[in-house]
Amino acid sequence: MKKILIGLLALTAWTFVSCNKDDDEPEDPQAERTVLIYMAAQNNLSYWPGSGHRFAQSDIEEIKEAIPKLGDNHLVIFVDKAKDPVTRYDDHNPYLLHYRKGELRDSVPLDSTMVPCDPTMMKNVINRVFTDYPAKDYGLVLWGHASGWLVKSDSIVSYTARQRAYGGSNLNNSNQGAGDRWMNIPTLAKILKTVPHLKFIFADCCNMMCAECAYELKDVCDYYIGSPAEIPGLGAPYDQIVPAMMEKETFYQSICDKYAVSYNDHVPLAVVKSSEMVSLAEATKTVLQSMKAADNLQQYPNLSDLIYYLDKNLYDINHFIKTYASDAEYNSWKKAFDKAVIYKKFAKQWDTMNHVSFLDFDMTEENFGGMSMFVPQWKLQSTDNQYIQKFKWYYAAGYDTIGW
Fold first, then answer.
1. Burial of 46 by CB count in 10 Å (0-12 exposed, 13-18 middle, 19+ buried)?
2. In sequence order, which residues have a C-beta less than 8 Å from that of residue 147 and are 6 or more positions away?
3. Of 54, 107, 136, 160, which is the most buried if we count CB atoms within 10 A?
4. H or E segment at 241?
């Protein structure tokens, strides 16, 4: 299909080239759905030192396999990879790939100086994609490194391993490490409020299924999908996930099912219905206050044997409430929880960042909620206990009213 270059659009520090069909070709009718896969791979996900795994390229190849099954939908991949040390793939400058009806429609180079975690850059990419490829509804895949709600500030700064949220980019295009520039979740929420409302956000990155993230993003998407735990470097099986993302009503269930099966049920997953997060926060506030009044909670609760994700910082919300609330209080809270977390896939175990499967708590389907929450600990009082106050969940769930 012939293309003509119709414009060069300057967007702050970078450019976006838009390609459209010739004027004599009829316009396609509006697509059912546009999904943008935002691939922040300017880090070791492009080339993993030691093993040589190219996770970003592997997923791109999987996506291409699924294009014949795309249907009447737009799929756009924003790609920003690190330099390949053996120059097998010399494509470290960012670019967009646009697919529709089984074919590549556009390949758009972007400015080499852009940083995926820069708020302005991300906002401009998403808005331009959804403007150029309109549809009846929209989906966003967050691809890259992440560590849940953990954050240091609301600006792009150099974070330590514990003080990061989403993205991970090296300014020198290096593949060393997880990246030295990150975006926190409140900033992400502000960006997404400026783009068309999303049918879903699928976080294909570690630890993003936490109450703090789900609540922060509740106003920008109808459904929020992700894992409370660390995920494998290869991430989702995109040859199967791409068709699943285009299903009209059952997409979230299909995404979780196909993801879980591809790893023999070793990836815990959950789906949140965003409209129920306010009710879940209110129910959590009520049960926490009751637990505090009954003196079931110390200032820093004993968290031994509770299900946790990522270095004993993100605790399973269901297991925590179930452990400390009375049966009546738990059952009341669970009703709100089940309306919010509408689907989940249980995993008996999963891999840590050190690639060692572990099981040092009572991991059962009854205890598993599929969503984590922050619980203060005395050893974290000068860091995480302060950073959590940047999140709306902290106040909505009543942490401040019980001395947390």
1. buried
2. 161, 162, 164, 165, 206, 207, 310
3. 54
4. helix 238-245
**pTM given for the model:** 0.90
CA dist 256 → 8, 203, 383 (Å): 39, 11, 33
In sequence order, what are the beta bridge partners of 7?
A: 18
Count how many Cα atoms sit within 13 Å of the Cα of residue 35 in the half-sphere of its side chain. Answer: 28
Alpha-carbon gap, residue 74 to 97, rounded angstroms: 10
Mean pLDDT across 77-105: 88
Tokens of 133: 């490829």
Mention every residue, 6+ apart, whose C-beta is less than 8 A from residue 169: 40, 42, 43, 80, 115, 116, 117, 179, 180, 181, 182
In angstroms, the CA 369 to CA 53 distance is 32
Strands (E) in 205-340, as ranges, are: 221-226, 269-273, 308-309, 314-316
| Spatial separation of the C-alpha atoms in residues 238 and 233, rounded to whole Å | 13
Helices and strands, number each (H, E), in the chain: 12, 17
Please report the DSSP string for 176-190 in residue order.
SSS-SEEE-HHHHHH
Beta bridge partners, 198, equal 221
Query: What 8-state DSSP symbol labels residue 210?
Result: B
How far apart, in whole angstroms, are the C-alpha atoms of residue 66 and residue 99? 10
Residue 135 structure tokens: 């549809």
HSE-up of residue 383 (Cα within 13 Å, Cβ side): 14
Please state, in angstroms and rounded to a whole number, the distance separating the CA atoms of residues 254 and 296. Answer: 40
Best CA proximity match to 121, nearest among 69, 158, 80: 80
The CA distances from residue 329 to 32, 42, 283, 290, in Å, are: 43, 46, 9, 8
* Of the candidates 265, 272, 55, the residue with the CA atom closest to the CA atom of residue 144: 55
- pLDDT digit string (tens) for 175-231? 877 777 888 899 999 999 999 999 999 999 999 999 999 999 999 999 999 999 999
